[in-house]
Design goal:
- Chain B: GO terms for molecular function: molybdopterin synthase activity.
- The complex is a heterodimer of chains A (85) and B (146).
- By secondary structure, chain A is of the alpha+beta class.
- Chain A has one domain: Beta-grasp domain (Ubiquitin-like (UB roll), Roll), CATH 3.10.20.
- Chain A contains three helices and five strands; from the N terminus they run βαβααβββ.
- Chain B has 146 residues and is an alpha+beta fold.
- Chain B has a single domain, classed as Aldehyde Oxidoreductase, domain 3 (Alpha-Beta Complex).
- Chain B has four helices and eight strands, in the order βαββαβββαββα.
- In chain B, the strands form two sheets. Chain B has a four-stranded mixed beta sheet with strand order 1-4-6-2, with helices on both faces.
- In chain B, a hairpin with a 2-residue loop joins β7 and β8.
- In chain B, α2 runs antiparallel to α3 and α3 packs across α4.
- Chain B is globular, with a radius of gyration of 15 Å.
- Chain B starts with a strand and ends with a helix.
- Classes of the chains: A alpha+beta (85), B alpha+beta (146).
- At the A-B interface, loops of A face β3, α2, α3 and β7 of B.
């Protein structure tokens, strides 16, 4: 499956880029799976994804839990808890 | 009428209040957030998720319109670098009477804090750090769940 993955705030800084297109294997079925698959790349990815409980996500611009299915997803964003206002 | 605006430009309160003043509204309640000047912060930078941010803010305003009798709901958020004392966010609700306007105004800012993809980075003496989300913000947003 081909996905555009976006990173924000310290997730973006640790990974060193804001956006990339990835092709994930079939066993990557949820956002949590994607986080684990990215962490396995090591380096900045492992650092950014070290504490999944500190991560939030959106699929196609809608907030979702990390257990959300990637079925039909085109854009996945991974980011820390929001701090606007 | 819903007005959602996300921009690096300074927030002009007079213009925003005037836009929120609708013919059938007897009350306009507003809230303005400023960059706090305390504990040595000399710059605050706001990152956001273009597209998703505007959609999230429109959803919050839609919910306010569905819940209270409103003539207008406004959410204006600044992004990019800001200095202490500058306006970062402005929300307003216009209603026939003050109670709906005041409650909807509180709702808009409380939900914005937890439901819109913004991230703050503070700089103190050249050292940047990301602001941590606060439990109290989650609690403030929760109280509107009823």
């Amino acid at each position: 499956m081909r996905l555009t993955v976006l990173y924000f705030a310290w997730v973006r800084e640790r990974i060193g880029q804001a956006e990339e297109v990835v092709t994930v294997p079939a066993e990557v079925a949820t956002v949590a799976d994607l986080v684990g698959w990215l962490a396995a790349r090591g380096g900045g990815y492992a650092e950014a994804m070290a504490a999944p409980e500190r991560l939030r996500a959106a699929i196609d611009q809608n907030f979702v839990g990390l257990d959300a299915s990637l079925a039909g997803a085109r854009e996945v964003a991974i980011f820390p808890p929001v701090t606007g206002g | 009428m819903i007005r959602v605006h996300v921009s690096p430009d300074p927030i002009d309160i007079a213009t925003e209040m005037t836009l929120a003043e609708r013919p059938k509204a007897g009350a306009v309640a507003s809230f303005c957030g400023l960059v706090r000047a305390d504990d040595g912060v000399d710059c605050l930078e706001l990152e956001h998720y273009p597209g998703a941010t505007e959609a999230a803010l429109e959803r919050i305003a839609d919910h306010a319109l569905a819940r209270w009798s409103l003539q207008a709901a406004t959410i204006v958020h600044r992004v990019g670098p800001m200095r202490p004392g500058e306006r970062i966010v402005f929300v307003a609700a216009a209603a026939p009477h003050r109670r709906d306007a005041l409650d909807a105004c509180a709702y808009l800012i409380d939900r914005l804090k937890t439901d819109a993809p913004f991230w703050k980075r503070e700089t103190r003496d050249g050292q940047a750090s990301w602001v941590e989300a606060r439990e109290s913000d989650a609690a403030a947003a929760e109280r509107w769940q009823a």
